Amino acid sequence: VGTADWWRGAVIYQVYPRSFQDTNGDGIGDLKGVTEKLPYIASLGVDAIWLSPFFTSPMADMGYDVSDYCDVDPMFGTLADFDAMMAEAHRLDLKIIIDQVLSHTSDQHPWFKESRSSRDNPKADWFVWADAKPDGTAPTNWLSVFGGPAWEWDGVRKQYYMHNFLASQPDLNFHNAEVRDALLKAVRFWLERGVDGFRLDTVNYYFHDKELRNNPPHAPDSGDAGLDAPDVNPYGMQNHLYDKTQPENVEFLKSFRALLDEYPDRASVGEVGDGARSLKTVAAYTAGGDKLHMCYTFDLLGPDFTPSHIRRCVEDFFRSVTDGWVCWAFSNHDVTRHASRFAQTEAERAKVAKLAISVLASLRGSICLYQGEELGLPEAELAFEDLRDPYGIRFWPAFKGRDGCRTPMPWKGEMANGGFTTASKPWLPVPTEHAALAVDVQDGEATSVLGHYRAMLAFRKTHVALIDGDMQFLDAGEDVLAFIRSKGEERLLFAFNMGRKAHKVVLPVGVSVKQVLDLPGYSGTVEKASLHLAPLDGFCAIV
Ligand code: TEU
Ligand code: CA
Protein backbone atom coordinates (compact mmCIF):
# COMPACT_ATOMS: atom_id res chain seq x y z
CA VAL A 1 0.00 0.00 0.00
CA GLY A 2 1.64 3.24 -1.16
CA THR A 3 1.45 6.51 0.78
CA ALA A 4 -1.32 7.84 -1.48
CA ASP A 5 -3.24 4.64 -0.73
CA TRP A 6 -2.89 4.86 3.06
CA TRP A 7 -6.69 4.82 3.46
CA ARG A 8 -7.02 1.38 1.86
CA GLY A 9 -7.31 -1.04 4.73
CA ALA A 10 -6.70 1.72 7.28
CA VAL A 11 -7.96 1.58 10.85
CA ILE A 12 -9.77 4.82 11.69
CA TYR A 13 -10.60 5.82 15.26
CA GLN A 14 -13.64 8.07 15.65
CA VAL A 15 -13.34 10.76 18.29
CA TYR A 16 -16.49 12.49 19.49
CA PRO A 17 -14.74 15.60 20.85
CA ARG A 18 -17.56 16.60 23.21
CA SER A 19 -17.00 13.41 25.17
CA PHE A 20 -13.29 12.68 24.86
CA GLN A 21 -11.42 14.87 27.35
CA ASP A 22 -12.30 18.18 28.97
CA THR A 23 -9.34 20.45 29.80
CA ASN A 24 -11.01 23.65 31.02
CA GLY A 25 -13.49 22.25 33.51
CA ASP A 26 -16.70 23.20 31.71
CA GLY A 27 -17.85 19.58 31.51
CA ILE A 28 -17.45 19.42 27.73
CA GLY A 29 -14.58 17.79 25.85
CA ASP A 30 -12.40 20.05 23.72
CA LEU A 31 -9.61 20.00 21.13
CA LYS A 32 -6.89 20.47 23.76
CA GLY A 33 -8.31 17.35 25.37
CA VAL A 34 -7.92 15.46 22.10
CA THR A 35 -4.31 16.63 21.86
CA GLU A 36 -3.66 15.51 25.43
CA LYS A 37 -4.93 12.02 24.62
CA LEU A 38 -3.24 11.56 21.23
CA PRO A 39 -0.53 9.29 22.68
CA TYR A 40 -3.31 7.01 23.93
CA ILE A 41 -4.90 6.89 20.47
CA ALA A 42 -1.51 6.19 18.91
CA SER A 43 -0.97 3.39 21.46
CA LEU A 44 -3.97 1.55 20.02
CA GLY A 45 -2.20 1.09 16.70
CA VAL A 46 -4.69 2.97 14.52
CA ASP A 47 -3.77 4.86 11.35
CA ALA A 48 -6.13 7.81 11.46
CA ILE A 49 -8.59 9.76 13.55
CA TRP A 50 -12.03 10.82 12.35
CA LEU A 51 -13.05 13.85 14.38
CA SER A 52 -16.78 14.51 14.68
CA PRO A 53 -17.70 18.19 14.08
CA PHE A 54 -15.94 20.88 16.15
CA PHE A 55 -17.05 23.80 13.93
CA THR A 56 -18.94 26.87 15.08
CA SER A 57 -22.45 25.71 15.86
CA PRO A 58 -25.47 26.38 18.06
CA MET A 59 -25.22 22.62 18.84
CA ALA A 60 -28.86 21.81 18.19
CA ASP A 61 -27.64 18.50 16.70
CA MET A 62 -24.36 18.48 18.67
CA GLY A 63 -22.36 20.21 15.96
CA TYR A 64 -23.95 18.54 12.92
CA ASP A 65 -25.58 21.95 12.50
CA VAL A 66 -22.73 24.17 11.36
CA SER A 67 -22.91 27.99 11.43
CA ASP A 68 -19.33 28.59 10.24
CA TYR A 69 -17.52 25.94 8.21
CA CYS A 70 -14.14 27.61 8.63
CA ASP A 71 -13.82 28.11 12.36
CA VAL A 72 -13.72 26.17 15.63
CA ASP A 73 -16.57 26.58 18.08
CA PRO A 74 -15.31 28.40 21.22
CA MET A 75 -16.66 25.46 23.23
CA PHE A 76 -14.01 23.27 21.58
CA GLY A 77 -11.20 25.84 21.35
CA THR A 78 -9.60 27.83 18.56
CA LEU A 79 -8.07 27.31 15.14
CA ALA A 80 -4.70 27.50 16.87
CA ASP A 81 -5.77 24.57 19.10
CA PHE A 82 -6.76 22.68 15.97
CA ASP A 83 -3.39 23.33 14.34
CA ALA A 84 -1.56 22.24 17.48
CA MET A 85 -3.64 19.08 17.65
CA MET A 86 -2.96 18.24 14.02
CA ALA A 87 0.76 18.89 14.31
CA GLU A 88 0.97 16.57 17.31
CA ALA A 89 -1.11 13.93 15.54
CA HIS A 90 1.18 14.04 12.53
CA ARG A 91 4.22 13.79 14.78
CA LEU A 92 2.70 10.58 16.16
CA ASP A 93 2.02 9.33 12.63
CA LEU A 94 -1.72 9.71 12.92
CA LYS A 95 -3.78 11.09 10.02
CA ILE A 96 -6.63 13.51 10.72
CA ILE A 97 -9.97 13.12 8.94
CA ILE A 98 -12.55 15.79 9.66
CA ASP A 99 -16.32 15.60 9.34
CA GLN A 100 -17.87 17.80 6.66
CA VAL A 101 -21.58 18.39 7.06
CA LEU A 102 -22.24 19.87 3.64
CA SER A 103 -25.83 18.79 3.05
CA HIS A 104 -27.31 21.30 5.49
CA THR A 105 -26.24 24.23 7.65
CA SER A 106 -27.54 25.56 10.93
CA ASP A 107 -30.40 28.04 10.69
CA GLN A 108 -27.93 30.40 12.42
CA HIS A 109 -25.50 30.25 9.49
CA PRO A 110 -25.23 33.73 7.88
CA TRP A 111 -26.09 32.12 4.52
CA PHE A 112 -29.45 30.98 5.82
CA LYS A 113 -30.14 34.20 7.70
CA GLU A 114 -29.64 36.09 4.45
CA SER A 115 -31.54 33.54 2.38
CA ARG A 116 -34.61 33.73 4.61
CA SER A 117 -34.61 37.53 4.74
CA SER A 118 -36.45 38.00 1.41
CA ARG A 119 -37.27 36.25 -1.84
CA ASP A 120 -34.81 38.30 -3.87
CA ASN A 121 -31.60 38.60 -1.84
CA PRO A 122 -28.36 37.30 -3.41
CA LYS A 123 -28.66 34.04 -1.46
CA ALA A 124 -32.41 33.63 -1.95
CA ASP A 125 -31.87 30.39 -3.87
CA TRP A 126 -29.13 28.92 -1.64
CA PHE A 127 -31.57 26.75 0.30
CA VAL A 128 -34.54 24.68 -0.84
CA TRP A 129 -37.48 27.09 -0.81
CA ALA A 130 -40.90 26.34 -2.26
CA ASP A 131 -44.38 27.79 -2.21
CA ALA A 132 -47.16 26.18 -0.26
CA LYS A 133 -49.73 24.15 -2.15
CA PRO A 134 -52.97 26.09 -2.85
CA ASP A 135 -54.45 24.72 0.38
CA GLY A 136 -51.47 26.02 2.36
CA THR A 137 -49.87 22.65 3.01
CA ALA A 138 -46.24 21.69 2.38
CA PRO A 139 -44.97 21.38 -1.23
CA THR A 140 -44.35 17.61 -1.03
CA ASN A 141 -44.96 14.71 1.32
CA TRP A 142 -41.25 14.43 2.21
CA LEU A 143 -40.46 13.53 5.81
CA SER A 144 -37.61 14.45 8.13
CA VAL A 145 -35.35 11.69 9.50
CA PHE A 146 -35.89 13.17 12.95
CA GLY A 147 -39.70 13.10 12.68
CA GLY A 148 -42.46 15.16 11.10
CA PRO A 149 -42.54 16.81 7.68
CA ALA A 150 -39.29 17.83 5.93
CA TRP A 151 -40.75 21.31 5.35
CA GLU A 152 -40.90 24.28 7.71
CA TRP A 153 -43.00 27.37 7.09
CA ASP A 154 -41.18 30.70 7.09
CA GLY A 155 -43.33 33.70 7.97
CA VAL A 156 -41.09 36.29 6.28
CA ARG A 157 -40.69 34.70 2.85
CA LYS A 158 -44.12 33.10 3.19
CA GLN A 159 -42.61 29.93 1.78
CA TYR A 160 -41.53 26.56 3.05
CA TYR A 161 -37.89 25.49 3.34
CA MET A 162 -36.71 21.90 3.30
CA HIS A 163 -34.82 20.09 6.07
CA ASN A 164 -33.97 16.38 6.06
CA PHE A 165 -33.11 16.51 9.77
CA LEU A 166 -34.08 19.18 12.34
CA ALA A 167 -36.00 22.29 11.27
CA SER A 168 -32.91 24.17 12.48
CA GLN A 169 -30.83 22.27 9.86
CA PRO A 170 -32.03 23.79 6.56
CA ASP A 171 -31.00 21.87 3.45
CA LEU A 172 -28.60 23.62 1.08
CA ASN A 173 -29.68 23.81 -2.56
CA PHE A 174 -26.97 21.86 -4.37
CA HIS A 175 -28.58 22.63 -7.72
CA ASN A 176 -27.16 26.15 -7.30
CA ALA A 177 -23.56 26.35 -8.55
CA GLU A 178 -22.71 29.16 -6.11
CA VAL A 179 -23.60 26.86 -3.22
CA ARG A 180 -21.40 24.09 -4.53
CA ASP A 181 -18.52 26.54 -5.00
CA ALA A 182 -18.92 27.99 -1.51
CA LEU A 183 -18.80 24.50 0.01
CA LEU A 184 -15.75 23.48 -2.00
CA LYS A 185 -14.09 26.66 -0.79
CA ALA A 186 -14.65 25.53 2.79
CA VAL A 187 -13.19 22.12 1.93
CA ARG A 188 -10.15 23.86 0.44
CA PHE A 189 -9.73 25.87 3.65
CA TRP A 190 -9.12 22.64 5.58
CA LEU A 191 -6.99 21.08 2.85
CA GLU A 192 -4.74 24.14 3.06
CA ARG A 193 -4.55 23.66 6.83
CA GLY A 194 -3.26 20.17 6.22
CA VAL A 195 -6.06 17.75 7.08
CA ASP A 196 -5.60 14.28 5.59
CA GLY A 197 -9.17 13.63 4.63
CA PHE A 198 -12.87 14.03 5.08
CA ARG A 199 -15.80 12.03 6.31
CA LEU A 200 -18.76 13.32 4.32
CA ASP A 201 -21.89 13.41 6.42
CA THR A 202 -25.08 12.28 4.65
CA VAL A 203 -23.35 12.39 1.26
CA ASN A 204 -26.42 10.91 -0.45
CA TYR A 205 -28.67 13.74 0.74
CA TYR A 206 -26.92 16.55 -1.16
CA PHE A 207 -29.35 16.83 -4.08
CA HIS A 208 -33.15 16.76 -3.93
CA ASP A 209 -35.48 16.21 -6.87
CA LYS A 210 -35.81 19.56 -8.64
CA GLU A 211 -39.34 18.76 -9.74
CA LEU A 212 -40.38 18.24 -6.13
CA ARG A 213 -42.17 14.95 -6.72
CA ASN A 214 -43.86 13.14 -3.86
CA ASN A 215 -42.11 10.10 -2.46
CA PRO A 216 -44.05 6.86 -2.98
CA PRO A 217 -44.98 4.79 0.07
CA HIS A 218 -42.33 2.51 1.50
CA ALA A 219 -41.77 -0.53 -0.70
CA PRO A 220 -41.44 -3.66 1.44
CA ASP A 221 -37.88 -4.34 0.28
CA SER A 222 -36.54 -0.83 -0.03
CA GLY A 223 -34.97 -1.08 3.40
CA ASP A 224 -35.62 2.54 4.25
CA ALA A 225 -37.29 1.47 7.46
CA GLY A 226 -33.73 0.96 8.65
CA LEU A 227 -32.09 1.31 11.98
CA ASP A 228 -32.78 4.98 12.26
CA ALA A 229 -36.48 4.59 11.81
CA PRO A 230 -37.98 3.36 15.04
CA ASP A 231 -41.54 2.11 14.66
CA VAL A 232 -42.82 5.37 16.05
CA ASN A 233 -41.16 7.44 13.32
CA PRO A 234 -43.14 7.48 10.04
CA TYR A 235 -39.93 8.27 8.09
CA GLY A 236 -39.54 4.57 7.37
CA MET A 237 -42.97 4.39 5.78
CA GLN A 238 -41.74 6.34 2.77
CA ASN A 239 -39.53 5.20 -0.09
CA HIS A 240 -37.09 8.09 -0.26
CA LEU A 241 -36.71 8.38 -4.03
CA TYR A 242 -36.95 12.14 -4.39
CA ASP A 243 -35.75 13.84 -1.21
CA LYS A 244 -32.20 12.49 -1.65
CA THR A 245 -29.79 10.45 -3.85
CA GLN A 246 -30.24 12.28 -7.16
CA PRO A 247 -27.92 11.49 -10.12
CA GLU A 248 -26.48 15.04 -10.17
CA ASN A 249 -24.41 14.15 -7.12
CA VAL A 250 -21.98 12.09 -9.17
CA GLU A 251 -20.79 15.24 -10.97
CA PHE A 252 -20.43 17.12 -7.71
CA LEU A 253 -18.36 14.32 -6.19
CA LYS A 254 -16.06 14.50 -9.20
CA SER A 255 -15.37 18.16 -8.55
CA PHE A 256 -14.87 17.40 -4.86
CA ARG A 257 -12.33 14.70 -5.76
CA ALA A 258 -10.55 16.92 -8.27
CA LEU A 259 -10.05 19.41 -5.44
CA LEU A 260 -8.67 16.73 -3.10
CA ASP A 261 -6.33 15.52 -5.80
CA GLU A 262 -4.67 18.94 -5.94
CA TYR A 263 -3.13 17.90 -2.62
CA PRO A 264 -1.07 14.77 -2.03
CA ASP A 265 -2.35 11.77 -0.06
CA ARG A 266 -5.83 13.00 0.86
CA ALA A 267 -8.79 10.65 1.25
CA SER A 268 -12.55 10.72 1.65
CA VAL A 269 -15.18 8.45 3.11
CA GLY A 270 -18.86 9.02 2.46
CA GLU A 271 -21.75 8.09 4.72
CA VAL A 272 -24.40 6.35 2.63
CA GLY A 273 -27.58 5.36 4.44
CA ASP A 274 -29.85 4.70 1.51
CA GLY A 275 -31.81 1.62 2.50
CA ALA A 276 -31.67 -1.26 0.04
CA ARG A 277 -30.32 1.10 -2.63
CA SER A 278 -27.17 1.78 -0.60
CA LEU A 279 -24.83 -0.48 -2.54
CA LYS A 280 -25.95 0.96 -5.88
CA THR A 281 -25.37 4.42 -4.48
CA VAL A 282 -21.92 3.47 -3.16
CA ALA A 283 -21.01 1.93 -6.53
CA ALA A 284 -21.99 5.18 -8.29
CA TYR A 285 -20.05 7.29 -5.79
CA THR A 286 -16.80 5.30 -5.82
CA ALA A 287 -16.39 3.94 -9.38
CA GLY A 288 -13.66 5.24 -11.66
CA GLY A 289 -11.25 6.45 -9.01
CA ASP A 290 -12.42 10.03 -9.65
CA LYS A 291 -15.05 10.36 -6.92
CA LEU A 292 -15.03 9.19 -3.28
CA HIS A 293 -12.25 6.91 -2.06
CA MET A 294 -14.61 4.84 0.03
CA CYS A 295 -18.05 4.76 1.63
CA TYR A 296 -19.73 3.12 4.53
CA THR A 297 -23.28 1.88 4.76
CA PHE A 298 -25.35 1.08 7.85
CA ASP A 299 -25.14 -2.70 7.23
CA LEU A 300 -23.17 -3.64 10.33
CA LEU A 301 -24.76 -1.03 12.60
CA GLY A 302 -27.91 -3.07 13.24
CA PRO A 303 -28.59 -5.81 15.78
CA ASP A 304 -27.48 -8.73 13.60
CA PHE A 305 -24.15 -10.25 14.65
CA THR A 306 -24.28 -13.63 12.96
CA PRO A 307 -22.00 -15.36 10.44
CA SER A 308 -24.66 -15.31 7.73
CA HIS A 309 -25.25 -11.59 8.09
CA ILE A 310 -21.58 -10.66 8.04
CA ARG A 311 -20.91 -12.93 5.11
CA ARG A 312 -23.86 -11.51 3.18
CA CYS A 313 -22.79 -7.90 3.84
CA VAL A 314 -19.20 -8.48 2.72
CA GLU A 315 -20.11 -10.60 -0.31
CA ASP A 316 -22.87 -8.22 -1.40
CA PHE A 317 -20.61 -5.24 -1.04
CA PHE A 318 -17.77 -6.55 -3.15
CA ARG A 319 -20.17 -8.09 -5.70
CA SER A 320 -22.08 -4.80 -6.15
CA VAL A 321 -19.17 -2.44 -5.73
CA THR A 322 -16.51 -3.92 -7.99
CA ASP A 323 -14.68 -0.62 -8.33
CA GLY A 324 -14.82 0.92 -4.88
CA TRP A 325 -13.81 0.43 -1.29
CA VAL A 326 -15.66 0.02 1.99
CA CYS A 327 -15.13 1.17 5.53
CA TRP A 328 -16.79 -1.18 8.04
CA ALA A 329 -17.93 -0.21 11.53
CA PHE A 330 -19.93 -1.84 14.30
CA SER A 331 -20.43 1.38 16.26
CA ASN A 332 -20.54 5.14 15.88
CA HIS A 333 -22.08 8.15 17.61
CA ASP A 334 -25.54 7.38 16.18
CA VAL A 335 -26.18 3.80 17.27
CA THR A 336 -26.38 1.68 20.42
CA ARG A 337 -22.90 0.56 21.49
CA HIS A 338 -22.26 -2.90 20.09
CA ALA A 339 -21.11 -4.48 23.37
CA SER A 340 -24.75 -4.03 24.42
CA ARG A 341 -26.26 -4.60 20.99
CA PHE A 342 -24.57 -7.94 20.31
CA ALA A 343 -24.27 -9.45 23.80
CA GLN A 344 -27.14 -11.60 25.08
CA THR A 345 -26.14 -11.20 28.73
CA GLU A 346 -24.09 -8.70 30.70
CA ALA A 347 -21.62 -11.44 31.55
CA GLU A 348 -20.66 -12.07 27.94
CA ARG A 349 -20.11 -8.43 26.92
CA ALA A 350 -16.32 -8.50 27.19
CA LYS A 351 -16.14 -11.71 25.16
CA VAL A 352 -18.46 -10.30 22.52
CA ALA A 353 -16.43 -7.08 22.34
CA LYS A 354 -13.24 -9.09 21.78
CA LEU A 355 -14.86 -11.34 19.21
CA ALA A 356 -16.27 -8.32 17.37
CA ILE A 357 -12.88 -6.61 16.96
CA SER A 358 -11.33 -9.93 15.93
CA VAL A 359 -13.92 -10.21 13.18
CA LEU A 360 -13.76 -6.53 12.19
CA ALA A 361 -9.96 -6.43 12.02
CA SER A 362 -9.99 -9.48 9.75
CA LEU A 363 -12.47 -8.19 7.17
CA ARG A 364 -11.62 -6.98 3.69
CA GLY A 365 -12.01 -3.21 3.83
CA SER A 366 -10.99 -0.29 5.98
CA ILE A 367 -12.43 -0.17 9.48
CA CYS A 368 -13.75 2.46 11.79
CA LEU A 369 -13.72 2.21 15.58
CA TYR A 370 -15.77 4.44 17.84
CA GLN A 371 -14.18 5.83 21.01
CA GLY A 372 -14.85 3.60 24.01
CA GLU A 373 -15.54 0.42 22.06
CA GLU A 374 -11.92 -0.58 22.74
CA LEU A 375 -12.93 -0.67 26.42
CA GLY A 376 -16.00 -2.81 25.70
CA LEU A 377 -18.23 -0.03 27.04
CA PRO A 378 -21.91 -0.90 27.19
CA GLU A 379 -24.62 1.56 26.18
CA ALA A 380 -25.38 4.02 29.01
CA GLU A 381 -28.85 3.85 30.53
CA LEU A 382 -29.97 7.45 30.88
CA ALA A 383 -32.96 9.11 32.46
CA PHE A 384 -35.13 11.40 30.34
CA GLU A 385 -33.79 14.42 32.29
CA ASP A 386 -30.26 13.57 31.15
CA LEU A 387 -31.03 13.49 27.43
CA ARG A 388 -29.45 16.04 25.07
CA ASP A 389 -30.17 14.43 21.69
CA PRO A 390 -33.23 16.10 20.12
CA TYR A 391 -34.01 12.86 18.24
CA GLY A 392 -34.25 10.94 21.52
CA ILE A 393 -36.16 13.69 23.29
CA ARG A 394 -38.74 13.64 20.51
CA PHE A 395 -39.38 9.90 20.47
CA TRP A 396 -38.77 8.95 24.11
CA PRO A 397 -39.44 6.34 25.43
CA ALA A 398 -40.13 4.30 22.28
CA PHE A 399 -36.72 5.41 21.00
CA LYS A 400 -34.19 6.58 23.53
CA GLY A 401 -32.03 8.51 21.12
CA ARG A 402 -28.28 8.56 20.71
CA ASP A 403 -27.02 9.88 24.05
CA GLY A 404 -26.43 6.38 25.42
CA CYS A 405 -23.40 5.96 23.16
CA ARG A 406 -22.18 9.54 23.61
CA THR A 407 -21.33 9.61 27.32
CA PRO A 408 -17.78 10.75 28.23
CA MET A 409 -14.74 8.46 28.04
CA PRO A 410 -13.80 6.89 31.38
CA TRP A 411 -10.06 7.41 31.71
CA LYS A 412 -9.48 6.78 35.40
CA GLY A 413 -11.59 4.30 37.31
CA GLU A 414 -11.04 5.87 40.71
CA MET A 415 -11.64 9.49 39.76
CA ALA A 416 -14.93 11.36 39.77
CA ASN A 417 -16.49 11.31 36.28
CA GLY A 418 -13.79 8.91 35.16
CA GLY A 419 -11.27 11.76 35.04
CA PHE A 420 -13.02 13.16 31.98
CA THR A 421 -13.62 16.53 33.61
CA THR A 422 -13.01 18.42 36.84
CA ALA A 423 -16.54 19.84 36.60
CA SER A 424 -19.02 18.26 38.98
CA LYS A 425 -21.52 17.70 36.16
CA PRO A 426 -20.32 16.73 32.69
CA TRP A 427 -22.68 17.44 29.75
CA LEU A 428 -23.80 13.80 29.90
CA PRO A 429 -23.24 11.65 33.00
CA VAL A 430 -20.39 9.14 33.12
CA PRO A 431 -22.17 5.87 33.97
CA THR A 432 -20.95 4.33 37.23
CA GLU A 433 -20.65 0.93 35.55
CA HIS A 434 -18.08 2.41 33.15
CA ALA A 435 -15.59 3.03 35.99
CA ALA A 436 -14.58 -0.63 36.16
CA LEU A 437 -13.83 -0.49 32.43
CA ALA A 438 -11.76 2.72 32.52
CA VAL A 439 -8.59 3.02 30.47
CA ASP A 440 -6.28 2.90 33.52
CA VAL A 441 -7.98 -0.27 34.76
CA GLN A 442 -7.43 -2.15 31.49
CA ASP A 443 -4.11 -0.63 30.44
CA GLY A 444 -1.28 -3.14 30.65
CA GLU A 445 -3.69 -6.08 31.05
CA ALA A 446 -3.09 -8.21 27.97
CA THR A 447 -6.33 -10.14 28.50
CA SER A 448 -8.52 -7.05 28.82
CA VAL A 449 -10.70 -5.86 25.96
CA LEU A 450 -8.25 -2.98 25.46
CA GLY A 451 -5.30 -5.38 25.40
CA HIS A 452 -7.07 -7.49 22.83
CA TYR A 453 -7.76 -4.46 20.60
CA ARG A 454 -4.08 -3.54 20.65
CA ALA A 455 -3.05 -7.09 19.85
CA MET A 456 -5.57 -7.41 17.00
CA LEU A 457 -4.62 -4.09 15.43
CA ALA A 458 -0.91 -4.91 15.67
CA PHE A 459 -1.65 -8.28 14.09
CA ARG A 460 -3.57 -6.64 11.24
CA LYS A 461 -0.67 -4.29 10.55
CA THR A 462 1.83 -7.08 10.14
CA HIS A 463 -0.19 -9.18 7.69
CA VAL A 464 -0.59 -7.85 4.15
CA ALA A 465 -3.42 -10.30 3.44
CA LEU A 466 -5.53 -8.45 5.98
CA ILE A 467 -5.12 -4.99 4.52
CA ASP A 468 -6.49 -5.56 1.04
CA GLY A 469 -6.13 -9.24 0.31
CA ASP A 470 -8.89 -11.45 -1.09
CA MET A 471 -11.54 -12.84 1.17
CA GLN A 472 -13.01 -16.27 0.54
CA PHE A 473 -15.77 -17.58 2.80
CA LEU A 474 -16.03 -21.21 3.84
CA ASP A 475 -19.22 -23.03 4.81
CA ALA A 476 -18.88 -23.85 8.49
CA GLY A 477 -22.41 -24.05 9.83
CA GLU A 478 -24.72 -21.36 11.11
CA ASP A 479 -22.67 -20.38 14.17
CA VAL A 480 -19.23 -20.22 12.64
CA LEU A 481 -17.86 -17.49 10.42
CA ALA A 482 -14.90 -18.89 8.50
CA PHE A 483 -12.87 -17.41 5.70
CA ILE A 484 -9.46 -17.30 4.10
CA ARG A 485 -7.68 -14.00 3.51
CA SER A 486 -4.90 -14.15 0.97
CA LYS A 487 -2.45 -11.96 -0.81
CA GLY A 488 0.63 -13.12 -2.70
CA GLU A 489 2.20 -15.95 -0.74
CA GLU A 490 0.25 -15.26 2.44
CA ARG A 491 -2.88 -17.29 3.23
CA LEU A 492 -4.62 -16.88 6.59
CA LEU A 493 -7.52 -18.97 7.80
CA PHE A 494 -9.96 -17.46 10.29
CA ALA A 495 -12.77 -19.19 12.15
CA PHE A 496 -15.02 -17.43 14.63
CA ASN A 497 -17.62 -19.20 16.69
CA MET A 498 -20.27 -16.52 17.09
CA GLY A 499 -22.65 -18.92 18.82
CA ARG A 500 -23.09 -20.00 22.42
CA LYS A 501 -22.26 -23.71 21.92
CA ALA A 502 -18.87 -25.33 21.29
CA HIS A 503 -18.28 -26.33 17.66
CA LYS A 504 -16.06 -28.60 15.65
CA VAL A 505 -15.29 -27.46 12.11
CA VAL A 506 -13.89 -29.87 9.56
CA LEU A 507 -11.35 -28.16 7.33
CA PRO A 508 -12.17 -28.26 3.64
CA VAL A 509 -10.08 -30.48 1.38
CA GLY A 510 -6.93 -28.69 0.29
CA VAL A 511 -6.67 -26.50 3.39
CA SER A 512 -4.03 -27.62 5.83
CA VAL A 513 -2.83 -25.71 8.84
CA LYS A 514 0.86 -24.77 8.68
CA GLN A 515 1.06 -22.66 11.79
CA VAL A 516 -1.53 -21.70 14.39
CA LEU A 517 -1.27 -18.03 15.29
CA ASP A 518 -1.32 -17.30 18.94
CA LEU A 519 -3.53 -14.31 19.62
CA PRO A 520 -5.05 -13.27 22.92
CA GLY A 521 -8.71 -14.20 23.00
CA TYR A 522 -8.21 -16.97 20.45
CA SER A 523 -8.24 -20.34 22.11
CA GLY A 524 -9.44 -22.49 19.25
CA THR A 525 -7.33 -25.59 18.57
CA VAL A 526 -6.71 -27.81 15.61
CA GLU A 527 -6.55 -31.58 15.70
CA LYS A 528 -5.98 -33.57 12.52
CA ALA A 529 -8.24 -31.79 10.05
CA SER A 530 -10.73 -30.33 12.56
CA LEU A 531 -10.92 -27.09 14.48
CA HIS A 532 -12.38 -27.00 17.96
CA LEU A 533 -13.97 -23.75 19.02
CA ALA A 534 -15.43 -22.80 22.38
CA PRO A 535 -18.46 -20.46 22.44
CA LEU A 536 -17.58 -16.91 21.24
CA ASP A 537 -14.07 -18.09 20.41
CA GLY A 538 -11.71 -17.54 17.52
CA PHE A 539 -8.98 -19.35 15.61
CA CYS A 540 -6.40 -18.12 13.16
CA ALA A 541 -3.72 -19.99 11.28
CA ILE A 542 -1.39 -19.72 8.34
CA VAL A 543 -2.59 -22.27 5.78
O1 TEU B 1 -26.38 10.85 10.30
C1 TEU B 1 -27.10 10.51 9.15
C2 TEU B 1 -28.30 9.73 9.33
O2 TEU B 1 -28.88 9.32 8.34
C3 TEU B 1 -28.96 9.57 10.67
O3 TEU B 1 -30.28 9.29 10.40
C4 TEU B 1 -28.45 8.45 11.45
O4 TEU B 1 -28.63 7.27 10.74
C5 TEU B 1 -29.25 8.39 12.72
O5 TEU B 1 -28.78 9.42 13.53
C6 TEU B 1 -29.11 7.06 13.43
O6 TEU B 1 -29.94 7.00 14.54
C7 TEU B 1 -25.51 11.94 10.23
C8 TEU B 1 -24.77 12.09 11.53
O7 TEU B 1 -23.97 10.95 11.74
C9 TEU B 1 -25.75 12.34 12.64
O8 TEU B 1 -25.12 12.42 13.89
C10 TEU B 1 -26.47 13.63 12.34
O9 TEU B 1 -27.48 13.85 13.31
C11 TEU B 1 -27.10 13.60 10.95
O10 TEU B 1 -26.19 13.15 9.96
C12 TEU B 1 -27.53 14.98 10.54
O11 TEU B 1 -26.41 15.76 10.26
CA1 CA C 1 -14.07 21.90 27.79
From TrEMBL:
SMART domains, sorted: Aamy
InterPro entries noted in UniProt: GH, GH13_cat_dom, Glyco_hydro_b, O16G_dom_2
Domain of life: Bacteria
A Pfam family this chain is assigned to: Alpha-amylase
Glycosyl hydrolase family 13 catalytic domain ranges (all copies): 14-406
Positions in coiled-coil regions: none
Family: Belongs to the glycosyl hydrolase 13 family.
Protein name: Alpha-glucosidase family protein
Organism: Ciceribacter sichuanensis
Highest classification ranks of the organism: Bacteria, Pseudomonadati, Pseudomonadota, Alphaproteobacteria, Hyphomicrobiales
